[in-house]
Write a structure and sequence with these properties.
By secondary structure, the protein is an alpha/beta fold. It contains 18 helices and 15 strands. The chain has a 7-stranded mixed β-sheet. The chain has a 4-stranded parallel β-sheet with strand order 2-1-3-4, sandwiched between helices. Strands 5-6 form a two-stranded antiparallel ribbon. α7 packs antiparallel against α8, α7 crosses α10 and α12 packs across α16.
Length: 553
């Protein structure tokens, strides 16, 4: 027997459980919108609403992505849809076609992510039987949807190649000093409702500024001089990178360069070819200059995270030559400025500077000790407020609902027994239906109460999970390079305050969110892991500890 989308994963609208809650999802690309067919979002929403009404469901939310490709899941409304699915706000998603939710692999991933939340996908205009033929039909349709996106890319690339070969501007903003003009002879490259292709020409108002910029660079050999000149004669602020992009843009010598395609001499040049070539030679000579060697290759793992609570400013890095080697420090910026201008300038910082090696060792030693000693980890959790649990009112409500459900079940059992004994009547059936409806309502309220308790308690790591996560830091630390160590500590250390010469206050995340680690297995039902940990300040350890000298090496 054939049913619409019956093999799709998700919940079923069981009798007595209330109306099925639907989310409506619509999507279109810019080309879809221009065709004004079933792909337009307003038409999609109307069809989806009609479908939900016919199914006897309710609309819990509407999600619309406009002018975005179905081959990517980086869509604002799709991300919101998935977050609401994870929060249990609906039971099914209605969309006109599979391709509206995603094309090719994007649909497979989207459907899988929704199924993990107990949400099924229902297509309004596509039907697949609950047999091997329906399974194959759905997969073939998905493959064709994915191939269409690939074909569109191929068509676009072919057209862009033809435009470049014909000397037309591929699109976007024209380079500074040039302007776009309509190519009168561009018949065949556009259709009604679309802008005709354009060519680039020197802009009468700004082309001379570009020529002066090239001349100034060849005269001075300094990009900084060009940057100052351009910032002075134009309303925009120029950076060194912007100046380099201007000096190396082949459009100024009349070339089109777009991806793998190039058309030499397609435009009227802004600067002469020998001037442009001379500028490239000068830039290449600057690139070949030997770079100055660093004073040493020491890595400040906590760069940007050490602060001075007395002066309210961040610490910077410095070093000095000791008796046998170079010593590295974190130094208060206020103290650093005072020392460079003389001790009479400003207020002296009570700390000044601290040894960087000892600060690094303190952080690692602290996490190592907590990872090894469960009692110490429990103490830290207690000092952090225990991360909270469900309050007594939530628990009391859950208990009352459980008693109501039990009482309803007893009444249902009595009514069923009476019917079995031959005392069937309209009044008895009506009473049974009423009690079953009451039980269904209580069950829904129990689910909501369980969800509230879960969000207050489950989203907190245990002491063992924090220990495992921190122990993983010690396991991978010896094999990481300097950059990876810096990234790893940045994922767990939020701040280091140097309160005294020999004391620091650390603020650490319980679970470091780093791809360098294999995190302990945990299940969280309401918020993503990183959002839960980083968004709640009470989920952090904060303590003062003496500066030590050990740790993972």
């Amino acid at each position: 027997m054939s049913r619409r989308n019956v093999h799709q994963t998700g919940l079923h609208n069981d009798i007595g459980q209330g109306k099925l809650r639907y989310a409506i999802y619509s999507r279109c690309s810019s080309d879809d919108q221009a065709r004004n067919d079933f792909s337009t979002t307003d038409v999609q929403e109307g069809l989806n609403r009609q479908y939900v009404q016919e199914k006897g469901g309710t609309v819990s939310g509407v999600y619309t992505d406009e002018a975005v490709s179905g081959t990517t899941l980086k869509r604002k409304e799709w991300i919101r849809l998935l977050a609401d699915a994870q929060a249990g706000k609906f039971d099914a998603v209605a969309c006109t076609y599979m391709s509206r939710l995603g094309r090719g692999s994007a649909f497979i991933i989207a459907e899988h992510e929704l199924s993990k939340c107990g949400v099924r996908v229902e297509m309004v205009k596509e039907t697949f039987a609950d047999d091997i033929g329906g399974y194959m039909g759905k997969n073939v349709t998905n493959v064709m949807d994915g191939m269409y996106a690939y074909q569109v890319r191929q068509w676009t690339m072919t057209k862009m190649e033809a435009m470049v070969n014909a000397g037309y501007f591929p699109g976007g903003y024209p380079p500074f000093g040039m302007a776009k003009v309509v190519a009168a002879e561009a018949a065949g490259f556009h259709r009604a409702g679309k802008e005709p292709p354009k060519r680039l020409v020197p802009d009468p108002e700004t082309a001379e500024i570009v020529r002066q910029a090239f001349a100034l660079f060849l005269e001075s050999g300094q990009q900084a001089k060009v940057r100052e000149y351009l910032s002075a004669v134009t309303p925009r602020s120029w950076t060194t990178t912007g100046v380099k992009n201007l000096l190396t843009n082949p459009a100024y010598k009349g070339d089109i360069v777009f991806g793998q395609w190039r058309n030499v001499g397609a435009y009227e040049a802004v600067v002469e070819l020998d001037v442009w070539d001379a500028a490239q030679t000068a830039l290449a000579a600057r690139t070949l200059r030997p770079a100055r060697e660093k004073a040493d290759d020491y890595t400040y793992y906590l760069h940007g995270r050490v602060r001075c609570p007395h002066c309210g400013c961040p610490y910077t890095q410095t070093s000095a030559t000791g008796r046998s080697s170079r010593v590295h420090y974190y130094i208060c910026q206020s103290a650093n400025r005072a020392s460079s201008k003389g001790s009479s300038i400003g207020h002296p910082c009570p700390v000044g500077r601290v040894n960087a090696d000892r600060v690094h060792a303190t952080v690692l030693q602290y996490m190592e000790h907590a990872a090894r000693h469960r009692t110490f980890m429990h103490k830290l959790i207690a000092q952090s407020g225990g991360w909270g649990t469900a309050d007594e009112a939530q628990k009391a409500l859950r208990g009352q609902l459980g008693k109501q459900k039990q009482a309803a079940e007893m009444r249902i059992a009595n009514y069923v027994k009476a019917i079995g004994d031959g005392r069937l009547s309209d009044a008895l059936l009506s009473a049974l239906e009423k009690v079953e409806a009451e039980k269904a309502a209580v069950c829904r309220m129990m689910e909501e109460a369980d969800q509230a308790i879960l969000s207050a308690a489950v989203q907190r790591p245990t002491a063992g999970q924090v220990q495992e996560a921190w122990a993983n830091i010690g396991r991978v630390w010896p094999v990481l390079d300097a950059e990876e160590r810096t990234d790893l500590l940045a994922s767990v250390v939020q701040s280091v305050e140097v309160t005294q010469k020999e004391t620091v206050t650390l603020e650490l995340l319980p679970i470091p969110m780093s791809p360098l680690l294999v995190l302990p297995a945990m299940e969280y039902s309401v918020k993503p892991l990183d959002q839960a940990f980083r968004g709640n300040p009470s989920w952090r350890f904060r303590l003062s500890t003496p500066i030590g000298s050990g740790g993972w090496t």
